[in-house]
Design goal:
Elements: E1 16-22, E2 29-33, E3 42-47, E4 50-57, E5 60-68, E6 73-79, E7 88-93, E8 97-104, E9 113-121, E10 135-138, E11 144-150, E12 153-158, E13 171-175, E14 180-187, H1 198-206, E15 209-215, E16 221-229, E17 234-242, E18 251-254, E19 262-265, E20 269-273, E21 280-283, E22 290-295, E23 302-307, E24 311-320, E25 323-334, E26 340-345, E27 348-352, E28 358-363, H2 388-391, E29 414-420, E30 428-432, E31 441-446, E32 453-459, E33 463-470, E34 476-480, E35 491-496, E36 499-505, E37 511-514, E38 525-530, E39 535-540, E40 544-548, E41 554-558, E42 572-578, E43 581-586, E44 590-596, E45 602-609, E46 614-618, E47 631-636, E48 640-645, E49 650-656, E50 663-671, E51 674-681, E52 685-692, E53 697-705, E54 712-718, E55 721-727, E56 732-737, E57 740-745, E58 753-756, E59 766-769, E60 773-779, E61 785-791, E62 795-802, E63 807-814, E64 826-833, E65 839-844, E66 849-858, H3 867-876, E67 898-906, E68 917-925, E69 930-939, E70 943-949, E71 952-957, E72 960-968, E73 974-978, E74 983-984, E75 989-995, E76 998-1003, E77 1008-1014, ...
Parallel strand pairs: 1-88
Antiparallel strand pairs: 1-85, 2-3, 3-4, 4-5, 6-7, 7-8, 8-9, 10-11, 11-12, 12-13, 14-15, 15-16, 16-17, 18-19, 19-20, 20-21, 22-23, 23-24, 24-25, 26-27, 27-28, 28-29, 30-31, 31-32, 32-61, 33-60, 34-35, 35-36, 36-37, 38-39, 39-40, 40-41, 42-43, 43-44, 44-45, 46-47, 47-48, 48-49, 50-51, 51-52, ...
Domain RSE1/DDB1/CPSF1 C-terminal: 827-1176
Protein name: DNA damage-binding protein 1
Subcellular location: Nucleus
């Protein structure tokens, strides 16, 4: 989907709004310990810019809090100071911010919160940053923390005795001879042994011992230990060292006492070292790369290891008399590709992945049947307090043989209990709008190796239909239960004009017609329900009927004609019910309240005549008593909503809607302990208020546009939670998260009525009424973004959408199981249906050939009207049995066919940069589900990017930009020929974006170059360049003159051309107009949106870009009008003082543009993550903030408009206006 960029004013796209639409999902760090309480086991998960705190319960892992960070995590450790009862959390960010956090059960606000115990900046003015990643290690005795941040240097933070820490700990630097440190760890204090000097052993007992795994300049790897003398602040030779360990060694594991020493994890050998005379090793075959480890036992005798291919292994240290006698390895099974892991308890293990879904698995002592293995999730955890040894007893029978790593054979001891979907890494994506309604869905290339998949990301809630029948004319639907306490529903009531039908699930699990004698089937039902006293309620226009649920016989009925307060007969127009009350209304504004008694009577307990005709009403209970309502909400034709007390029906509060549109539906609802009043109008607007029972008042009035047609509100249950369904032309489900109302579109456009209908055959189901049908089904989990996984088993690299054939082209690399990560494997073009995602066709690329780019296009018709026939003839002459092409992409024979065009690179071992590649034209025929090679062109280099340009093909090959056309050749054939001389641009041309005659090129090292195509001359020329050097990772156009780029330092930069500049020199320079640190390594930028924009929204037409990054986050960049930008800039400054970063991390430092050479303040961008935190503030604090920023915002125009306009020329904003704008921004993503 390539939406047209809309003009946002004369300033263009200079004022931008950046927000994270989907948080990072890659797990890069995890730790287990007692953080929130001494008696609890916590799992702390680091997801790039977020911290997840979870607690282990008998039901499994339960989320405690998700904490956003003003930084990208590089290290995370739990440690316990001496004399402390619970652990502290160490954080280190990529930008050299260090913090120690403590969980406090009752903070200053009375709520649990994170408290910063220590914080400091560990950046040095001089130093070369480490290439292998920052490292942190904590001494087991909590005497020191070591950080490896710069080559040849160790930074040490000395800790105080006792449970307290300094707020700004003292640090000092020590010089290291080893430059390329791969891993490091503090060792447990050891006693003297053979091969170690007495002096070294004594020093090791008094001071921490640090073990380093490093690589020398000849690429050999070694282990060396140092004693850290805290008094002299020097590094002294440690008790032992080991030269020339396994060449692929990647991790070092400290072994606790009484065994002591360390384990070095290599690709082919696992070795244990303590002294030179206490080395033990075992082989692991075939060679594999160990990515993560976790200790099983406190004494360090068993460890879990995970390799790059997802193989899970158990390492056992066989020992006697506190001396290690040997190492044994057993393969337990295959899991996700794991980057970090934590052993929790009783055989349960958390596997954190940065290239697949993270998992919670259970280890079994005995092999599992194939159906119950790693691919079959288990049920809830019944108990995590069982004997630990029994759960992990897989080690006991491990035998002495080395395990086969990476293979699928062998017994499986691993059961997947739960998994967390991850988009990471997003290598590429497309945005599709299949229904042409302006709401896109992302299809991402995600995962690595065997965890590769397509992920379909969409905004809204999907319906999974289980049964359906054609049934036109339904005017309402309700479910009934046989008794109030039943968990399942028994009947479904359908209302039609002039009649009512009942349906029930038969013994054959078929939805069939049923009958209840007391039901009036010859009248249209206005309401049906089950009462607290096991009776059935039916309200028609003539009467309220009470029916026995057991016998089905009519017990009693009430009609307005018999009412004491009714002077003349009239019919019932509206009805609402609680479990033991009924509220009905008739013409003239008359309202009656009826009590449903246990004895089967309907007692009239209240009546009132409203000032205007009643338009809607509700008496859903809110508050502690969920069986009896104390409030009634009534909407009237006077454009008001009134709350009446029950049972006396006296007015409590009345709110004017400020509209000329009649309210069509009203609802009382309670979310997360907060009561709300919702009112839907006839024009698609929804008003909501918070109900404050202490003051009997309504507060925090909000208004949101859900559609353009009348809204009908109804309550339903799903997953044990109550939600509100708003039927309109854009059906919406209303729910709450963090005490904030949220709105998710239902991905069905015709749902008019919805009701819960949960039966034994269809548990937790819903009945959905469309224009001409009734269906039963379930809905997705209630959340904002939904992700569907399409497993591939191979790594997707690039993706393109071909609308004409309703297909997706995906180029993939298939690596055999157990292969080394450096192995190339075989590459393919796979074609999938863009709706069902079924595999339709495949094409295999040549050996040693990898795909680097893909696009879908139809060449311009200027070549000839017989392009299709010529292409067919060309295909007929191709080798390898290529078939003729009769047409393409669902187009007619008069149109040019659509092709998938794939760019490749041929990899040769001794080449630094590929010298050969291909451009392949392939045609997909939907009828035959086949791919045909139409054209293959060899080029001198790797084809890094492809795109359509004025009916021709634009390609970047190494450092040159080529333009090709589909031209007629001899014998009626067509072939790709160069349309103009290629133009060399900088180092490597990786990215392309086009608009009109302009081509924007993104270079690996030298930022952006603007080219112009001169058709008359048949040439590409350089028009302007960005003079700053930037290592680009993504590029996109914002408008004709403005371009957005992302770099390898996780920055975003906006540049703009100067067509109106006075001199040629100025016109040849691209001006930087915005800088921002987004905190994500962005792989792709594309135009699009995940939400449907309403035409009457102020931001309904702003241009927007979506991006996907390495850590699985999805972000949005939208260009705002200048007035909005200035208002949000003021709000952002105020929020910086209110929304503080944890760990003393600063917002301004976090969002500063920074790369290897310079650091500058952010400009031209609003941080939407911070601005939208305004909606999470308590109303009182929000009002206080707004009053401080815009003191005149609370004045009326008559009181002080001139004064306010003079003080704040940009405008004055009330709390309600700021809230409305923030909600408008939230609806962009």
């Amino acid at each position: 989907m390539e939406p047209m960029v809309t003009d946002v004013g004369p300033q263009g796209c200079l004022f931008n709004y950046h927000v994270t639409a989907h948080k990072p999902t890659a797990v890069r760090q995890c730790a287990v310990g007692s953080f929130t309480s001494p008696n609890e086991t916590n799992l702390i998960i680091g997801r790039s810019t977020h911290l997840d705190i979870q607690v282990l319960t008998p039901e499994g892992l339960k989320a405690v809090q998700t904490v956003p960070l003003y930084g990208v995590l590089s290290a995370l450790k739990l440690f316990r100071p001496k004399n402390a009862t619970k652990d502290l959390l160490l954080l280190l960010t990529e930008h050299y911010k260090f913090a120690v956090l403590e969980w406090v059960a009752a903070g200053p606000s009375g709520q649990p919160e994170l408290v910063t115990r220590a914080t400091c900046d560990v950046k040095d003015a001089i130093g070369r940053p480490v290439e292998a990643g920052q490292l942190a290690a904590v001494d087991p005795e909590c005497r020191a923390i070591a950080l490896h941040l710069y080559e040849g240097q160790l930074k040490v933070l000395q800790m105080e005795e006792g449970p307290s820490l300094q707020m700004a700990p003292e640090t000092f630097n020590l010089r290291l001879e080893e430059l390329a440190v791969i891993d490091m760890a503090f060792l447990a204090a050891s006693s003297s042994g053979a091969g170690s000097s007495a002096a070294a052993a004594a020093a090791a007992a008094a001071n921490p011992v640090l073990a380093l795994l490093y690589e020398d300049n000849k690429h050999a790897r070694h282990v060396k230990t140092y004693t850290l003398n805290l008094k002299t602040r020097e590094l002294e030779d440690g008790p032992w060292s080991q030269a020339n360990v396994d060449a692929g060694s990647s991790r070092i594991i400290p072994v606790p006492q009484p065994l002591g020493g360390a384990i070095v994890l290599g690709e082919s050998v696992l070795s244990y070292f303590n002294t030179q005379h206490a080395t033990r090793s075992t082989q692991i075959k075939p060679n594999t790369s160990i990515q993560s480890w976790a200790a099983v036992d406190a004494d360090g005798s068993r460890y879990l290891l995970s390799d790059h291919a997802g193989g899970l292994h158990l390492l056992v240290l066989a020992h006697a008399d506190n001396r290690v006698a040997g190492l044994k390895v057993q393969t337990l099974g295959r899991t996700t590709s794991t980057h970090c892991m934590a052993y929790l308890d009783s055989g349960y293990v958390f596997l954190g992945s940065k290239g697949g879904d993270s998992q919670l698995v259970k280890l079994h002592a005995e092999p599992l049947p194939a159906a119950a293995g790693a691919g079959a999730p288990a049920g809830p955890i019944s108990s995590l307090a069982a004997d630990d040894d029994a759960a992990a007893a897989a080690a006991a029978g491990s035998g002495g043989a080395a395990a086969a790593a990476g293979g699928d054979e062998g017994p499986n001891h691993v059961e997947v209990v739960d998994s967390w979907p991850s988009l990471a890494p997003i290598v590429d994506f497309v945005v599709m709008d299949l229904e042409r309604q302006g709401q896109g869905q992302m299809v991402t290339c995600s995962g690595v190796f065997q965890d590769g998949s397509l992920r379909v990301v969409r905004n809204g809630i999907g319906i999974h239909e289980a049964a359906a029948m054609e049934l036109p004319g339904i005017k309402g639907v309700w479910s009934l239960r046989a008794s109030w306490m039943d968990a399942c529903d028994s009947h479904l009531v359908l209302s039609f004009v002039g009649e009512t039908r009942l349906l029930a699930i038969s013994e054959e699990d078929v939805l069939d017609e049923a009958a209840i004698p007391g039901f009036d089937g010859d009248s249209q039902t206005l309401l049906a329900a089950t009462t607290l006293h096991d009776q059935l309620l039916q309200v028609t226009s003539s009467a309220v009927r009470l029916i026995s649920a057991s016998s089905g016989q009519l017990l009693t009925q009430w009609s307005p004609a018999a009412a004491a307060a009714n002077a003349g007969s009239s019919s019932i127009t509206l009805a609402a019910a609680s479990p033991c009350q009924v509220l009905v209304a008739s013409g003239g504004g008359k309202v009656w309240l009826l009590e449903v008694t246990e004895g089967g009577q309907l007692q009239e307990v209240g009546a009132v005549v409203m000032d205007a005709e009643v338009a809607c009403l509700d008496i859903t209970p809110v508050g502690p008593d969920n069986t009896r309502a104390s409030l009634a909400a009534v909407g009237s034709w006077s454009m008001q909503v009134a709350l009446l007390s029950l049972p006396d029906l006296k007015p409590v509060v009345t709110e004017d809607l400020g509209s000329e549109v009649i309210p069509r539906s009203v609802a009382l609802a309670e979310f997360e302990g907060q009561a709300y009043v919702l009112c839907g109008l006839g024009d698609g607007q929804l008003h909501n208020w918070r109900w404050e029972p202490d003051s009997n008042s309504l507060s925090d009035h909000r208004k949101v546009v859900l559609g353009t047609k009348p809204i009908l509100l109804s309550a339903f249950s799903s997953g044990g939670q109550r939600h509100i369904f708003a039927a309109s032309d854009r059906p919406t489900i209303i729910y709450s998260n963090n005490r904030k109302l949220l709105y998710s579109n239902l991905n069905e456009n015709e749902v008019a009525f919805l009701a819960s209908f949960s039966t034994a055959s269809f548990p937790d189901s819903l009945a959905l009424v469309k224009e001409a049908s009734l269906s039963l089904g379930t809905i997705d989990g209630i959340q904002k973004l939904h992700i569907r996984t399409v497993p591939l088993g191979e790594q997707p690299r690039r993706i393109a959408h071909q609308p004409g054939s309703r297909s997706l082209g995906v180029v993939t690399i298939s690596t055999p199981a157990g292969a080394n990560p450096s192995d190339i494997g075989r590459s393919y073009l796979r074609v999938f249906s863009d709706s069902s995602f079924d595999l339709l066709a495949s094409y295999q690329l040549g050996p040693q050939e990898i795909p680097t780019a893909i696009t879908s296009m139809a060449f311009g018709s200027s070549s000839s009207s017989s392009t299709a026939a010529a292409a067919a003839a060309a295909a007929a002459d191709k080798p390898e049995g290529a078939a003729a092409v009769a047409g393409g992409g669902g187009s007619s024979s008069e149109e040019s066919p659509s092709y998938y065009i794939v760019g490749t690179a041929v990899i040769k071992p001794n080449e630094v940069e590929p010298s050969k590649g291909h451009i392949l034209l392939l045609h997909y025929a939907p009828g035959s589900n086949s791919l045909t090679l139409v054209e293959q062109m060899e080029v001198h280099g790797a084809v890094y990017n492809l795109c359509e340009f004025q009916g021709k093909l634009l390609a970047t090959v190494n450092n040159k930009v080529h333009l090709f056309k589909w031209a007629a050749a001899a014998a009626g054939r067509h072939e790709l020929v160069s349309d103009c001389s290629p133009i060399g641009v900088q180092v490597l041309c990786l990215f392309l974006a086009v608009r009109g005659d302009f081509v924007v090129v993104g270079d690996l090292m030298n930022s952006i170059t603007l080219l112009v195509y001169k058709a008359a001359e048949g040439a590409l020329e350089v028009r302007a360049r960005d003079q700053e050097s930037k290592w680009l990772t993504a590029l996109a156009l914002m408008d004709d003159d403005t371009y957005l780029a992302a770099d390898n330092s996780s920055n975003m930069v906006v540049v703009r051309k100067n067509p109106d500049a006075a001199t040629d020199e100025e016109r040849a320079r691209l001006e930087v107009t915005g800088r921002f640190h987004c905190g994500e390594f962005v792989n792709r930028l594309r135009p699009g949106s995940l939400v449907m924009r309403l035409p009457d929204s102020e931001l309904g037409a702003v241009p927007s870009l979506l991006y996907g990054g390495v850590n699985g986050s999805v972000g949005l960049v939208a260009s705002l009008p200048r007035e909005w930008f200035e208002m949000l800039a003021t709000l952002q400054e105020g929020l910086k003082k209110v929304v503080r970063g944890v760990g003393g991390l600063d917002h301004d430092s976090w969002r500063r543009f920074k790369d290897e050479r310079r650091s500058e303040p952010a400009s031209g961008f609003i941080d939407g993550d911070l601005v939208e935190a305004f909606a999470d503030l308590p109303p009182g604090k929000g009002r206080e903030l707004v009053a401080g920023l815009w003191p005149g915002g609370e004045f009326s125009y008559e009181e002080g408009r001139e004064l306010v306009a003079g003080l704040w020329p940009g405008g004055e904003f009330s709390y309600e206006e700021v809230s409305r704008r923030v909600e408008e921004l939230q609806r962009l993503h």
